[in-house]
Amino acid sequence: MAETAHFGARQVPLIEKQALVDDVFHSVARRYDLMNDLMSFGLHRAWKDALVTAVDPPKRRPFALLDVAGGTGDIALRVIDRGGEETRATVCDINSDMLAIGCGRAGGRITFTEANAEALPFKDRSFDAATIAFGIRNVPRIENALREAYRVLKRGGRFLCLEFSRVDLPVMDRLYDAYSFAAIPPIGKAVTGDGGAYRYLVESIRKFPPPERFAEMIGEAGFARVEFTRLSGGIVAIHSGWKL
Ligand SMILES: C[S@@+](CC[C@H](N)C(=O)[O-])C[C@H]1O[C@@H](n2cnc3c(N)ncnc32)[C@H](O)[C@@H]1O
Question: In DSSP terms, which residues pair with 89 in a beta bridge?
Answer without folding.
Answer: 65, 110
